[in-house]
Amino acid sequence: MSDLDPLLRLRQSIAANEAPITTTSPDPASDPTDNLALATHLQFSNPHYSYPLDTPTRFISSDKSVDLRSIWFAWQKKDVAIPDYIASAQELNEELAGKDGASKVQNLVFVERLDLITWLEGASEDSEYIKGLESDASATRSAQVASGAAGGVSTIPSGGAGARGGRTVDPRLQEIYNGERRMGDRNSVLRGIKPTDFSHVRKIAETFLSRSRPSKSLTNTNPNLVSLPGKPPIINNTPIPSGPNPKHHRRPDPIILLSPSASSLLRLSNIKSFLSDGLYTPPHTTSTHANILHLTRLLPTIDPHRPLRFILVDTPEQFKPDYWNRVVAVFTTGQTWQFKGYKWQDPRELFKEALGVYVGWRGEDLPPSVKGWGRGVLSVGVEKWNSGQGAGGRWRDREVVEGIWGRVEEWMRGKGWGKEGLGR
Fold it and tell me: Is 156 helix (H, G, I), strand (E, B) or coil?
């Protein structure tokens, strides 16, 4: 029944400013507790009802029902920033693991959390992540009243098949609700149903670029001679592909994934100066609005003449399936939520496919999770930052960077990377 649905009861209590309390037993007389690791039930009043915190709800994330503990935790953290929410969820899960190991708070992604909070506050009539309630006489009657199909005073819809029973609103306030624009996800807000593929633009551009290239009649007739501006021709001993229309093969760029954690010592803002210049600076001292970086590095055992261009990103959201074959290193802080959107979400499996790199402060202990991942993770330490130290005092950073690149080169060579890419 809709009046026993925990999501609906929570929404009603929030609207009535009668927030539920967490307790350690279903007994109404039991002492309340603010510690979600110790609490077992969520108590509602008017009328009184108690729900176990592990009760599944109608909110669906990753095709699984989210329990009431995760819903209540997301509501409590509705005003905190994303990194703080993620850190709090991890801390709570560690406490729950030490208690019984069975309970766990599900970490909702930004879009899901925003959609849930909007619905609980009553600012949204429905949610794409909430399944509808089972139809019954009471729910049908409430829906008719809310839509104006039957008499009575309008009520605020609940977002499922039913509506919030018994609570009326001022007609002027209902008119304001009716005029609100319905929220959508990031694709629908851009008036699209899926991301647009602009790969065809490259083909069109190639037509114009080919017109600006010199014709064969203006170049050397000897295919083994290569002329450079201002220099005499040199001999090119590279064999020419046979066939009427040989195509140039562009070497794929290897990819390095960074951790998006706010506690990571290396972010997109400072990773380039660290890996390119061998100098560590804290992430907050520099800023960048880019979500992708490029850097080049000569790896002599793979290609002694041409530097490889590396792509650096902190999320795989825009990855195509074949991109995962090009991931050569993953920088991590030891937090497993980083791998949620990865192809390999189990760290032990991930670090068989890519080199793991943990960078911490020199002299500090490794996180237990990093130790448990074994030899697939390279652990290094940099000197703690001192603003008065200057670049000359951080000469050890170069040693650390060279060690990282040495392991990356060794790993890529072992995976079959060659002059023309993976397996070439």
Answer: strand
